[in-house]
Design brief:
The chain is of the alpha/beta class and about 250 residues long. Helices cover about 40% and strands about 20% of the residues. It contains 10 helices and 8 strands. An 8-stranded mixed sheet has the order 3-4-2-5-1-6-7-8, sandwiched between helices. GO terms for molecular function: hydrolase activity.
Length: about 250
């Protein structure tokens, strides 16, 4: 059975989409069958792979989800594109029992086809994120190395705990990833120590550095591995991929 990783943080600009896109690419490059699901109405994950948003989100259609998956330029990497259509966003965000059930049922119908499904969520702890969490098996939280890194995490963790209870333990904590890491800044080291002291082994050993390649790659519709394969960012996500595989 495949693993469904929900990449989530209540704050924007912490490397959430960057992580979803490049981790899924790294997993695909390792030979794993990976699927990237864009649940963020901004559709940045979709654009990062050079694709256009869809007019109707696949996760709320009655048709088989397998018929709506598109292949990317990378071998082993498929995608379910995001939608900016307000009606789709409202239906997904409603997170009533019927909608949550649809999303989970769709994911369960393809879980044996892929080794990994990564879900890019909006920057919030709202109903849309909760819907994504309800269909996932693991949570991956990117945390930016800044002063307010821990702010709001209590609310996010409480939301995750509620979903864990509601899904009878289907959802687990997959890991916390430190992003935009600058070892020369004292603040970065302080946040690193604080996060690791508080969360312990759940924090990944690898960190994602500040790297302009990670910022530039999406504007070219490419992953960092396609855009700058020798960059620090590419190396970091390769390391993350190895740790994710080791935690299986």
């Amino acid at each position: 059975m495949g693993r469904i990783l929900c990449v989530v943080n209540q704050k924007g600009g912490v490397g959430k989409t960057t992580t979803a896109v490049n981790l899924s690419a790294a997993l695909a490059m390792s030979g794993k069958r990976a699927l990237l699901l864009d649940m963020d109405p901004q559709c940045n994950a979709t654009g990062s792979l050079g694709l256009e948003p869809t007019d109707g989100h696949a996760m709320i259609r009655s048709q088989p989800i397998s018929d709506q998956i598109v292949e990317t330029k990378m071998e082993n990497l498929s995608m379910i594109r995001g939608s900016r259509t307000l009606q789709d966003v409202d239906r997904l965000a409603a997170a009533g029992e019927s909608e949550t059930g649809i999303v989970r049922d769709h994911l369960d119908s393809i879980i044996d086809t892929y080794d990994f499904v990564l879900i890019d969520c909006p920057p919030s702890v709202g109903p849309l994120t909760q819907t994504a969490l309800s269909g996932s098996t693991e949570v991956l939280m990117p945390i930016q190395c800044e002063y307010f890194a821990m702010e709001g995490l209590t609310q996010l963790i409480q939301t995750i705990k509620k979903v864990i209870v509601a899904t009878d333990g289907r959802l687990t904590f997959g890991g916390i990833l430190l992003t935009m890491y600058d070892p020369y800044l004292e603040l970065t080291r302080e946040v690193d120590d604080e996060v690791r002291d508080f969360f312990g082994d759940i924090v990944f050993d690898c960190v994602v550095p500040r790297d302009v390649s990670l910022c530039e790659a999406p504007s070219h519709g490419k992953t960092v591995f396609e855009y700058a394969p020798r960059s620090r960012g590419a190396f970091a996500y390769t390391q993350l991929c190895m740790e994710v595989l080791e935690r299986d």
